[in-house]
Amino acid sequence: MMSTHQETFISKYVFSTDHKMIAKQFMWLGLFFLFFGGAMAMLIRWQLAYPEQTVPWWLFGFLFENDGGIISPDIYNQLFTMHGTIMIFWAITPLLIGAFGNFVIPLQIGAPDMAFPKLNMFSFWTMLLASIVLLSSYCLPTGTASGGWTSYPPLSSPAGGIPGLGQTIWTLALILMGTATMMGAINYITTVVRLRAPGMGYFKMPLSIWGFFLTSILNAVFVPVIAAGLIMLLLDQTIGTEFFLAGRLASGEPGDPLLFQHVFWIFGHPEVYILILPVWGIVSDLLSVFSRKPAYGYRVTAIAMCTIAALSTLVWGHHMYTTGMSPLLGKSFMFLTLLISIPSAMFFLNWLATLWKGSIHFDPPMLFAMGVIWVFGLGGLTGLYNATVTADIYLHDTMFVVGHFHYTLAASVMFGSFAAIYFWFPRMFGKILHPKLGKIHFWGTFITLNFVFFNMMVLGYAGHHRRIYNPLEYDFLTPLAGMNEWITIFAFILGDFQLLFLFNIIWTIWKSKPSKKNPWQAATLEWTMDYPIPHGNFEEVPLVYHGPHEYSCPNIKDRDWLGQNEQITI
Amino acid sequence: MASIIMLFSTLISSFFVLKIRLMKPIMFPGNITLIGYVNTAILIGSSITFFISEKKYQTNKPYSFDLWLLFTIMGGMVFLLGQLLLWSELTTMGIPFTFGQLSDMFYVISGAHGLHILVGLGLLIWIQLSKHNHYSRIHHVGIFWHFLGIIWTLLFASFILL
Questions:
Q1: pTM
Q2: Domain ranges of chain A
């Protein structure tokens, strides 16, 4: 399987078809946008805590000189729109699905590469094109998109919407990004279905692979939905069709902005599971590795994840309780949404049972994995309030929702990505990220993050609307100004700890010594070959005999684990 | 292996095309309906010719395989031209693009389908010209082509008949 062909610089680093190099390309892209979107979050926080005060130099104040050094309302709208768009579609998706999906899937299932290596390369370059298109909208005189990350039509369509081309370019970039995602999803599904090593049954796959697999299925099925909606939106914006034009319903023409909301959330709700499913898989695996115990209830966890993937397709209406939908429909959506808590609780208890009486190693990947248990638990529990129609009608569009989805999406997915980076860094670059810095990074992030997002939920409960430009303009919100300031201070500290993480990555790649072959003593296939992993991954096709979590085996001398390809009877 | 991708794009495009069809059907004037029926018949016919050509390939008759494949490609091209004729007829009757939501829906759906037909035609021409055909490649392109025919029949039925 070893490849012998010559590689030039361009074919190795730029137009590479090797899944490991494409994974690294996606990782740098994702990290770039993570910091880009993070910087915008800091500016949003500045405006909410110190409304209409001069932006200091360390928050890139010089960018706002045209507006007298303050964040104007238009810029504020653009900030939160692009923060949402970039974090969801350009930071998390490439980082988690693009980078680790690419890197881990072939290595863990024992495949030489992705099923379609050229399609894989093409997926990255389409994604890069989408990024350039998106960033180009900043150069427009009217600025970039500002209709919120959901881009609902009265705001995003030309009639009565936001002036300028920003929204059109946003739509175009998202269509391109969706194309890249679909290409990746097709590739992942085919790879998992066709290229598993002999002996690697579906229930011998590591749970990370289950996560990536289910994510790809949801992607392949639901990204086309949003693509269709966005194409119709694009036609509305450019050619002058009136699919989503508001106010025509009364005159008999069926143009209807609510239609876009339905299309958006039919995709949008699976999308949140698209982002979180790989994290669940990775966390399940890491908890097992670092507790030195087999993952408790492996099959139950896998089946629970499948159930959630299926249920996630039926619950989009819970984003639209306040659109005046029929109470019967609202109740049905509420019932289906609450049903999700059953499989969630199942794998959640499995996680806790995996930890129970394990010999836990508190390495940075484990800390982040355990962080996911906390933030996802809290985020999931607050989800129950939002899923209930009666509570949601009050809480809808308040900061409570912002706190909730930052716990589930931002915090969980960020922690999951960090855990993955810390865990697989020795496989990607042959070096371990500095553990002390990693621990400081974890505790700094964990503590400040809880201050930020928990207080947001309190604010929301007190009635703070989520899209307010200047909260001090409302009398009932003035007592909360101190709290806003508090959140902002902690958000800045949170941001600073991420700079430490960036420093850790750069410093490790430049200065650190090569690590051992299998520093975490993990049993899955990706740790069986020497670094650097050659093009083609495995020297010979591995044969798989065991499940992915054979830890604490009593019968093996001088270690406590059994690799998936080792033929020793237990 | 490279052809398995067709299977999955099949799934995707099915969802794509069906998803766009969220609107109610429209009433078409008579001659438009006639063009539509003829077009549909041509597309179904091209599916049948492809079926015959695949059989010829299996029984190892390269000459008639090529011939029937050529018929299939011609069928696809005539279908596309027919769709363009349909569009121009609609426009001359005073229902251009951006006239109203329902007719726009027809334009968008048939346009999206037409683009897929174009891709399918490209694949058919590819296997026509290629000298190293593998059976699985022909088989999967065939699945895609039949699939586009079925989708069009369903779309057409929901526009005209419902």
A1: 0.90
A2: 22-527
